[in-house]
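Issue 218. Parser rejects a valid record. Input:
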Amino acid sequence: MCAKVTLQHKLEIQDRIIAAALVSFSKKGYDKTRMDDIALDSKVSKGTIYLYFKSKEDLFYALCERNLVELRKQLFSLFVTNNKNDEINNQKLISDTKGYYNNFSHFENSYIIFLEILSKSTRDEKLRSAMYSQHKKVTEVMREHILSYLKGDDKASIPDDHEIDLIVMSLIAVYNGLMINRLLGVEEEANKKTWVDSVNRILGTIVNTLATPKVE
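Output the parser choked on:
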């Protein structure tokens, strides 16, 4: 019993540190943030932080991993339906993009950090490698959910790898453009309309694929 409580306590402290790092990195920038700042915001000692993370780089990698977990949750809610043969559920895949858009606001601080680290990585091979690794993980997670959705209907015609890659990269491109618009101050309603229209077209490819029977 005590072991479980101790583990839970450790996870809570780790989450507090990561959350504090996200705030500090986004407000002060990655380079100017000190471990003392993160300790103050997370209400733990600097020594405690080093028990969980060896450096600021480790904290950044932890942020990337947490964002990946959140992305999996969002993609799961977007692509998984109870009955993929039901036309109503296929249309739900499209309509849910409106609600899905609202979740992006949670990633804004992370994206600010992402852009800063991306710039820094042009001069830092280790960071560039970490960014590329994260990019590959994101694309694989998206591929996994799209393929899982399509394979759920045994009558669907599965796109080839190139087509799946186009869908994934298109979604990533729209996401990146959306977040840049938000940071530049483009009106939120305009962002939302662009997002919904663009993603409807991209995900419409999947719905059309489900409607196209396999040729035996």
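Fixed in the parser; the record now loads. The two ends are 57 Å apart (CA to CA).
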